[in-house]
Known about the structure:
alpha+beta; five-stranded mixed sheet
Amino acid sequence: MPTPAAPRRSRPGFTLIELLVVIAIIALLIGILLPALGKARDAARRTTCDVQQRSLLTAFMTYANDFKDVLPDPNWGRRPAYSNTGQRPRGWLLDDGLFAHAVGDENTPPAGPATGSTWDYLGGQPYLVDGQPPAAAAPGSLLKDPVADIFRCPSHRNQTEWRGTERITSYVVNGAVRSYGRRDVSYRVDLFLPNSVILWDTDEDLEGRSGAPWNDGSSFPTEGISDRHGQGTTVGRVDGSVVWILRSDFDRLAFDEPKRNALWCNPGNKQGR
Length: 273
């Protein structure tokens, strides 16, 4: 006589209420973790931005060491040539005589900051060989050089419409470096106070708050700083350091203080203007 089979035990399943509780817990954990992850990501990008500005400042100082302590040309006003010598200036960001080639247009990728004087001191591949652009310097190709990333804040997102120098940089130099266009040559480093701000992450607004920050490689302080990092941004000083500054403090120095300060630091003017 065959042995009767043991009765199968039914495996208990999750009830609907239990599933809803698990889903709610997962959603709660995601809600807690996402802001923390977002803050960590933003902090990492801010740190990268700090490092990049330090790299640019180091390149500025190395350039100055090679040129009798004179800072790189700030690319103020996109001059085709020096007024007294007729030579074409090569600014920190780009060669003014190659502006259209450097920034490109709607149909042409930009050659990027490889045309500028800072590029060489950052270790970028040469833009000119025997006075001519090499084949590798075709428009857009030099933007693939890792050095090109130093000029771009990691929080500076692709925009639907980039104009002018925004296509190749997130940063601008303080126009005080060349007396806001009233000089042909930049000032020497030793003429600035150590806390003088000469570099910042500029306003994303194509028109700026008081000017057009993307028309060249330098700005007035009143043209504003970026919102990319929240309530403030990193700025670079002539002593090679970078510091965090609140937008409210930047605006106070730029708009409300008539006397010389860390932003209005033109050595050739009593008020720093």
